[in-house]
Amino acid sequence: MNEQATLQNLYPFEPDYLDRALECLAGVPGYPYDESLDRPLVAELLRDFPDIDLVDQIKAWRWYRVDNPARLKNPRGALRRWMLRAREFGL
Questions:
Q1: Domain segments of the chain as ranges
Q2: I need a labelling partner for 78 at 20 to 30 A (CA). Which of 3, 32, 39, 41 fits?
Q3: What is the DSSP letter of 16?
Q4: Is 61 helix (H, G, I), strand (E, B) or coil?
Q5: Could you give the C-alpha distances from 11 to 27, 70, 77, 88, in angstroms and in order?
Q6: Where are the alpha helices (DSSP H) in 1-91?
Q7: CA 28 to the chain's CA centroid
Q8: Backbone dihedral region for residue 67 (phi beyond 0: left; psi -120 to 50: alpha; all else: beta)
Q9: In a 3-state reduction of DSSP, which class is residue 79?
Q10: DSSP of 33-54, one letter per residue?
Q11: What is the DSSP letter of 31?
Q12: Would you give the end-to-end CA distance of the chain in angstroms?
């Protein structure tokens, strides 16, 4: 099964969901957005966390980063940890 088909199975009513998630991620203050790295990252997060509204959580992470602007050594890892905690707390 190709990646696009997988994403459509996860979010069948929102075919632009991956692009919306990337747009939100690009707006995170201090995040080193690079589409060649972040498109596969977001696709992986969608597969790994189908029970989480990724766009909503990226928006929450963005506002957390606005309020806590310390430099991240591993921003993509920090995003993954945020998603793990979102799952843990049932968000």
A1: 3-88
A2: 3
A3: T
A4: helix
A5: 22, 33, 24, 21
A6: 3-10, 17-26, 35-48, 54-67, 75-88
A7: 11
A8: alpha
A9: helix
A10: --HHHHHHHHHHHHHH-TTS-H
A11: -
A12: 29
Angle formed by the axes of helices 3-10 and 17-26, nearest 10°:
90
Q: Is 36 exposed, middle or buried (0-12, 13-18, 19+ CB in 10 A)?
A: exposed
* Sign (positive or negative) of CA dihedral 78, 25, 40, 52: positive
9: helix, strand or coil: helix
Return the closest-CA partner of residue 82 out of 50, 45, 47: 45
pTM for this structure?
0.80
Q: What is the pLDDT of residues 2-22, one digit of tens each?
A: 454 454 455 545 678 999 999
Q: Are 53 and 87 in contact (CB under 8 A)?
A: no
| Tokens describing residue 65 | 């980063």
